[in-house]
Specification:
Blueprint (H helix, E strand, L loop, with lengths): L1 E6 L3 H9 L1 H4 L1 E4 L8 E4 L2 E5 L2 H4 L1 H10 L4 E5 L11 H20 L4 E3 L8 H13 L4 E5 L1 E2 L2 E2 L6 H10 L2 E5 L13 H4 L1 H15 L2 H4 L4 E4 L10 H10 L1 H4 L6 H5 L3 E3 L5 H11 L4 E2 L19 H7 L1
Parallel strand pairs: 1-5, 5-6, 7-10, 10-11, 11-12, 12-13
Antiparallel strand pairs: 2-3, 3-4, 8-9
Helix pairs in contact: 1-5, 5-6, 6-7
Length: about 300
């Protein structure tokens, strides 16, 4: 088994966070004696900081129990820090990435992704290049933040660097801020896959899959709702010039240019995804160690992992 959607916080990142807690408004809240403290940064998206997030040996033990041979490990979205001054974002990115390099190099069966300061695209490009030169395979990035999508023209330096380095770019959403969803955990339950859907559709219709063919774009949570509504997008492509203007291939074909993780918890949904995009574009993932993780991952074979990591 493999896992391309899993998260870890190396000691270097935790040390930076503690040293700069006041600067980024980081708080550790002990809510339940039976649970670990909950971490929030700048008052947003707090989560239980389980021991498996920060204890490398425990993480590896749990991975072995699940039968996972190789993990592509990502930083956590809560520490993207795009809303801060770019100097702060870059400082944590470097600490996090250096820690990820050290940890993944020290153990077999581990590869890592970087976090980069997308709030400063030129610096994001430079940090991606630096991190990949040290052995990381690409970067995890938010699908959007502050109303800005990954298809925003200002991010061109990042995309050009990713293209030149043949990087994996893992698109991972932040919580949806739609006020209608502020109940019953809906920002996470349905808002998160919606954010992925919006980002992926914008990348597709703005021609990014053709402009940057060497970037391997991995979509979290099975691609959100994109695979389910690809027929509607295809109908729009044949009907409206505004949809087809920047996309020479059909949306159905374009959808097969992405990679998709298996974090779906539903066999029928996974079967539909494989039928829609092909087995070589579907990659095992878990979202471990977050609460909503599929652990161990669905067994879909190695084709997708091999094509992504090639």
């Amino acid at each position: 088994m493999y896992d391309v959607h899993t998260h870890f916080i190396p000691p270097e990142a935790m040390e930076w966070l503690r040293a700069n807690a006041a600067k980024v408004n980081a708080e550790w809240k002990k809510k339940d004696p039976a649970k670990a403290a909950f971490l929030s940064v700048n008052g947003q998206w707090e989560f239980e900081l389980k021991e498996t997030f920060v204890n490398g040996e425990l993480y590896l033990q749990e991975r072995q129990k699940a039968g996972i041979r190789h993990s592509l490990v990502s930083p956590i979205p809560q520490l993207f820090l795009y809303d801060f001054d770019p100097a702060v974002t870059l400082d944590l990115s470097r600490a996090y990435n250096d820690g990820m390099v050290a940890w993944t190099k020290a153990h077999e069966g581990l590869s890592g992704l970087a976090t980069v300061p997308l709030n400063a695209p030129e610096q994001a490009a430079a940090e991606l290049e630096r991190a990949m030169a040290r052995g990381l395979r690409g970067a995890i990035v938010a699908s959007s933040w502050g109303g800005k999508l990954l298809s925003d023209p200002t991010l061109e330096p990042f995309w050009e660097a990713a293209e030149a380095k043949r990087a994996i770019v893992f698109v991972h959403p932040l919580l949806c801020a739609d006020a209608r969803l502020k109940q019953k955990m809906m920002p996470n339950l349905i808002g998160v896959p919606w954010e992925t859907t919006v980002c992926a559709t914008a990348l597709m219709l703005n021609g990014y899959l053709e402009k940057y063919p060497n970037v391997k774009i991995l979509l979290a949570h099975g691609g959100g709702y994109l695979p389910y509504q690809i027929g509607r997008i295809g109908k729009g492509w044949t009907s409206w010039p505004a949809v087809s203007a920047s996309l020479s291939m059909s949306p159905q074909e374009a959808a097969r240019r992405f990679w998709y993780d298996t974090v779906l918890w539903n066999e029928s949904a996974l079967e539909h995804l494989i039928r829609t995009v092909g087995e070589d574009r579907v990659v095992q993932g878990t979202d471990f160690p977050f609460d909503l993780c599929e652990w161990p991952p669905a067994d879909v074979g190695a084709q997708g992992f091999e094509s992504l990591m090639d």
